[in-house]
Amino acid sequence: MPVSLLLNVAYDWVPPFKLHTLHIGGCRVGHGFWALIQSQTELVYISLYNTFISDSIEKWLSKISSKVKYLDLSYNNFSGRLPLQLKFPKLQIIRLGHNQLEGPLPLWPTNVNILDLQSNSFSGPIPSNLDQLMQELNSLDVSENNLNSTIPLSICNMQNMARISLSINQLFGEFPQRWSLWSVIQLIDVSYNNLSGTILNSMGIPFSLM
Q: What Pfam families does its record include (predicted)?
């Protein structure tokens, strides 16, 4: 379906309002739109999916309000690497899937619940201390990237994990034999990797998967 709407904003426009919610999807935003984002210091909910933005992800994240709790910039053309630190202490959901992001997976000490980085070009290992950095994580999607490592045992220590998708990467080795520790798990997708070994009956299957 063709995009029929273009939302253009002048670089020097100073909006006479302060938004708490910004939800735009399926239309183009102009090159000066980031200036509007920078002026909105009270934003809590930001959804700009499929808005044809081609820019540096680090530049945009530096302009967004530190009060944001929900951030969706998926289905765009953001490029570059994610910053080493996030300035969003209240962030709960971050969706950056279907962009052109690269580099290693971020090592953020954060209380994020949902992290969606699918369909990018992240490479390297899954952080071995993910359980310590993102203790509140309950949904992780890093499918369709270029991750090339084993699945760390520590990932099984994440007691709140309900959904995890690691499919279509270059992961190798055996799947951790401790998944019974995930008491609330609902989905595990590790398809289209180079994993080996067997799933042992002695591992136990979480009740939530039965």
A: LRR_1 (PF00560)
Q: Which long-range contacts (CB under 8 A, 24 or more apart) does 31-34 make?
A: 32/8, 33/7, 33/8, 33/9, 34/59, 34/60, 34/63
Torsions phi, psi for 169 (to 5 deg) = -130, -155
Between strands 139-141 and 93-95, the pairing is unpaired
The pLDDT value recorded for residue 165 is: 96
Tokens at 115, concatenated: 């992290």
176: nearest Cα among 198, 160, 194: 198
Cβ atoms of 47 and 69 within 8 Å: the answer is no
Region of residue 186 (left: phi > 0; alpha: psi -120 to 50; beta: else): alpha
d(CA 42, CA 38): 10
Low-confidence ranges of the chain (pLDDT < 50): 1, 202, 204, 207-210
pLDDT given at position 65: 93
